[in-house]
Amino acid sequence: MHLQLVGQQLRQLTHLKSQQEAWVELQSSLLDVIPGQGVRLQRLQVEAGRIDLQGQAAHVPAMSLVAQMLAERWGTPLHLQSLETGGAATGASAFSFAWQGQWSALDLGPGPSRKGQP
């Protein structure tokens, strides 16, 4: 029974380690790629292995370049979900965008089992 518990704990720790490595890669990629490209990330959400990014870009080509660079680093395509312009009425020339992609390394799953714990 003790060996089963140790094995379960080892699997949980291995899963946590891979999650931490995925988050470090995500952060590193965002810090390496986005600055200097005229793109500003405003929202990041990860849920069930899906990543959603929302932000603004001064120009569509800059936004597309950042999406391509992140997709190459992460090994998964980012799909454009929406693209809106600031509009002439507001005087803004920035574009708002939303991307979505799958990243199984960030699949948080059900988490550690709580069996036998109060």
Notes on the protein architecture:
The structure is a single chain. With 118 residues, this protein is of the alpha+beta class. The protein has 2 helices and 4 strands. It has helices at 2-33, 60-74; strands spanning 39-47, 50-57, 79-85, 95-102. It has a 4-stranded antiparallel β-sheet. Strand 1 and strand 2 form a beta hairpin. Helix 1 runs antiparallel to helix 2 (60-74). Residues 110-118 have low confidence and may be disordered.
Features:
118 residues, alpha+beta, four-stranded antiparallel beta sheet, elongated
- Calculate Rg over CA atoms: 19 Å
Q: Largest beta sheet, briefly?
A: 4 strands, antiparallel
What characteristic shape results from the CA principal axes?
elongated
Percent helix among the residues?
Answer: 25-40%
Tally of contiguous helical segments: 2
Distance between the termini: 19 Å
Which secondary-structure class do the elements indicate? alpha+beta
The helix-strand sequence is HEEHEE
Count of individual beta strands: 4
Average pLDDT works out at: 82
pLDDT < 50 stretches? 110-118
Strand proportion, as a percent range, falls in 25-35%
